[in-house]
# Entry
Amino acid sequence: MAMKVAKRGNIPPFIVMDVMRAANEREAAGGDVLHLEVGQPGTGAPAAVLEAVRAALSADRMGYTDAFGLPALRAGIAAHYADRYGVAVDPGRVVVCTGSSGAFVLAFLAAFEAGDRVALASPGYPAYRNILRALDVEAIEVPVGPETNFQPTPGLLEKIEGRLDGLIVASPSNPTGTMIGRDGLKAIVDYCAGRGVRLISDEIYHGITYGEPAETALAFSGQAVVVNSFSKYYSMTGWRLGWMVVPGELLRPVECLAQNLFISPPTVSQYAALAALGCRAELDGHVARYASNRELLLRELPKAGFARMASADGAFYLYADVAHLTNDSSAFCARMLAETGVAATPGIDFDPDRGNRYVRFSFAGRTEDMAEAARRLIAWRT
# Structure
C-alpha cells in the first residue's frame, strides 16, 4: 500500500541549485566552468575569523548556546546597528539564526497563519514564495519593472485586491540588485503601519552597494522584522549563520519555535561571527572587487547582446532582459553552459510569469573569471 506524502514538499525547486549541480557535473566530467550562477562570494571568511575559530575550538566544547545565540554576539549585532546606521537596537530583540533561511522560517511561522496573504515583488528571491507555500500562506506576487526600479511601492500595493497580512521587501534585491531609497522605504513602512501589514525587510546584501548606502527599516519602525546574514557581505555562506531583529510581541513565539526547530544556532559559527563583525576593512575590500566586476560586465556584456539590465545598485547581480534572444531562459542558460562553459541562472527562478525572458549573472567571483566570461559570451554571440 502506497504511503502518504505531505503536500508541503510539493513546491518548486530552487533552480539556481539545479544550475549549480549541472555546472558541477560538467566540471566533474573534465569541462571548465565559469560560475556566474550562484550568489556566493568568491572569497572565504576573513583571516581573523579563522584565527578566532581555532582559538574557540581549543577553549570551548561547542555545546548548545541559548536558542537566540551567544549574548556577546547579540550585543555585537546590536552595536552594528548603532555604528552603521545610527539606530539603537536592544540586544534582547536580536535573534541569531541558522542562516537567513532559518530566520525566514521562524519569522513566517511566528507572524503569519495558514491562509494569510503576503505580498512580495516579482522578480524576487524564490525561497520567499516557496517557504510561504509550504506553510500554507498565500504569496501575492507584485509584478515590478524598470518603472519602479524593480521594487514595490505603496501605489502598486494599493492595486492588490483583498486583504494583505504581510509584505516582504529586499533592498538590495536578489536578483536585480536594485534598492529602495530612504524616502521610498519610509513610505512602505508607513503604508504597512497604517494598515496592520507585517513588514519583513530582507537586508542580507547590506554593505554591498555602489552608490548610496542601504537604509534599514529599523530606522523607521520597531514593528518590522529585519533579516540579515553573515553569508554575503561577511563572505561566510557555508557557516550558515544569520540574524533577525524582531518586535517585542514576536520574541517569545520566535524563541519557542527556535527551541523546537533548531535548538540553537551553530556554536562554532557564532564564534566566527563575533570576529567577523570587526573585519570591515577586509570585507570592504571584497566590495571594491565586486564594484570592479560590475563595471567590467556592464561595459562588456552589451557587446554580447545583454544590454537591457536592472540598475544593480547593490548586491552582486545583473538581471538582463534577453527577450530579443530567447523566450525560454532555462533552455538558453543550458545551451550557454554547454557551448561556452559560462553558468548563469534563468529568470524563471525569480519570476514564474515573466522570467522566461530574463537571465541573472552573479559577479561575486574573481575579476579574471568575469573578464573571461565576458570574452566567451561576446565570441558566442558574434
The chain has two domains: 7-45+281-381, 47-278. The mean pLDDT is 95. The longest strand covers residues 117-122.
